[in-house]
Amino acid sequence: MTSNLEDQLLALRQEGEAAIASADTLERLEELRVNYLGKKGQLGALLRSMGQMSAEERPKIGAIANTVKEAIQNSLDQQRTVLESAQIQAQLESETLDVTMPGIYRPQGRIHPLNGIIDQALDIFVGMGYTVAQGSEMETDYYNFEALNTPPDHPARDMQDTFYLPDGNLLRTHTSSVQIRHMEKEEPPIRIVAPGRVYRRDDVDATHSAVFHQIELLAIDEGLSFTDLKGTVKVFLQAIFGDLPIRFRASYFPFTEPSAEVDLQWNGRWLEVMGCGMVDPNVLKSVGYDPEIYSGFAAGFGVERFAMVLHQIDDIRRLYNSDLRFLQQF
């Protein structure tokens, strides 16, 4: 029986080593380990028959069994090393980038002309000590009109045809509402610039849109005068358009007094580009400022207007159509 069991052990070794050498995956290798060396594997089944041997036969067969087990385990370890190395190499090859291959072309993005004007204007005002302020596009009648010296029966409301909402609120017609909310929270001195989208019931054509963008500035302090306003506006406009002639014409806005329109001489003709004025004392009172102590000025302009002048755009609708042929010019 000893000779028969010895032959079976040696045959198991040869069979196992051959099967392990041909294993091509780590999963297959684990199946072979369980088949040969597991608790219910072939080697264990052969060793359980040793209970029928004499005490003299067991040490010899035990030594052979240990040799077989070590041989199969060594074969498993060697094949596992080979397979793991191959797996790593395959992963490296699959993840390797060929730097000699041509790249995939992705067109470079460009700044929209409206965003370009806004960024440029904010940079100028921030450089003059102003802080950027933002506000909600949906407003109450109080902040959009009444606090800006425009009561319900004021004729100035006819100047701005408004989008009213079912709840009684409205879409802001200017960014001046940002000024009121800011002044309610802060004490002078104040210097802010407020960019944003505004809404009016305009008929859409080459020069008008129901949705457009404004930038307004506000300065409140002791002793500010119209001279300070003119100097600020002149510095800003010349930073945008260059050293061109500028003039101020008397005008009317309900929230400034006195008020003015600002014209710029562009390509030999005068263009209206801004509105401005000294903050009306009633506006200062509405936010709790004493007009006997504080004064201020405000100014605003349409971003689309600036973009159309600077880039010689003939139709405001081109700014909203997302036509790449148009946008790629900038």
Automatic annotation (TrEMBL):
Superkingdom of the organism of origin: Bacteria
Binding site for Mg(2+): 257
Entry EC no(s): 6.1.1.20
Subcellular location: Cytoplasm
Domain Aminoacyl-transfer RNA synthetases class-II family profile: 171-329
The reaction(s) this protein catalyses: tRNA(Phe) + L-phenylalanine + ATP = L-phenylalanyl-tRNA(Phe) + AMP + diphosphate + H(+)
Record-given protein name: Phenylalanine--tRNA ligase alpha subunit
Source organism (scientific name): Anabaena lutea FACHB-196
Molecular function GO terms recorded: phenylalanine-tRNA ligase activity
Similarity remark: Belongs to the class-II aminoacyl-tRNA synthetase family. Phe-tRNA synthetase alpha subunit type 1 subfamily.
Enzyme class: ligase
